[in-house]
Amino acid sequence: FQWEREELHTVLVNYLFITEQSVMMRLSSRILKSLPALVDHYSRFSPSPLSIQQFLDFGSKNACEKKSFSFLRQELPVRLANIMKEINLLPDTLLKMPSVELVQSWYVQSLTEILQFENTSPDDLRMVTDFTDTLDKIRKRHSNVVETMAQGVIELRDSHGIDHQTDSNIQYFLDRFYMSRISIRMLIHQHVLLFSPTQETHPRHVGSIDPNCDVESVVLDAYENAKFLCDQYYLASPELELVSHNGIKKTSPITVVYVPSHLYHMLFELFKNAMRAIVEYHGTAALDYPKVKCQVSLGKEDLTIKISDQGGGIPKSAMDVLFNYMYSTAPQPPKSGSTTAPLAGYGYGLPLSRLYAKYFQGDLQLVSQEGYGTDALIWLKALSSEANELLPVFNTTSSRHYGTNIPTSDWSSPYTPRGSQNSVRTFLTFRI
User: Is 273 a catalytic residue?
Assistant: First the structure.
């Protein structure tokens, strides 16, 4: 009798699961049919930027899964729809690249899955739990978006070439696309870390935010990992000189409310670049290398981190393209059988690092002296209440950008070779 009851329970559970899956499949089919109209609808709304302080307050004081569910089921479709509308403005040749089509399919699938919860009640605990599980699946699905979109641009370059106008549109789009991705992952990651029972977080963290992020600790962590790579590749690496100045509390370590993984991403990229520049400029046979210098300072408004190297610097003619996607001074890695492209050597490190800085109203800039070295500066908001998300908004201004031709320069080119026909003609005209 006990066995029969257990078997009956198993059958009932399986029946309910199959029934639920059938309902969800029918719902997905209905949403897919009306997806273009839904994308149009949600893209008419502007995203709602949050500050780090708002993220922190919600997660630490009154974290409520139902409230988060109610907000995200409206906000995530807005952010997804805004960037999906911009994807459609890209050149047809790029949209037809296999990797770009794959990225688009991920966005369509993720938006469809979120819209299944559009009209469900926050009081339905099963739906709220399913929503959290769905977000975790979406986060994993989109883990290779950066590499895959990069591969799509490579496919376009190799098959059709990229003219100046197309390159300008791609640079503009990728900044907005990757910033949108950072923001969406931030929302999803916070929700999943706070409410998924399978996620483990640091006991001090609120989701992915550290209320007392020790900046020096992150600096040292990023340096050590960059040093490990440098030692592996060159069998040598420069040492670090770290200096901190707390302008608020003179004797206290510098701490801020921030996302440690974002700060680490920026610092690791800058240390990696600085070490490579130093070793290659001075030669792998050098007995000693100048140190990488890092200065951290905290004021009333800004946290500033400066990383300085004596790696020979960068010529001014190259400074304008350093933050362009696909620009890299490293040799491009050989093609592999993988479906995704590695980031190293493809020029995504610096532009992505600057986006992480800008995401919460900071910035990242380079100042260089050719023949000597480079200073890289990161500015972050010292006050979490002022660190608001910077989000792309799809509107007539952004749409117009993709259809506007780059104006013809009305200044002489600084790169006209000496002895060219133009310079000869000008000289002859002057003599006459």
Answer: yes
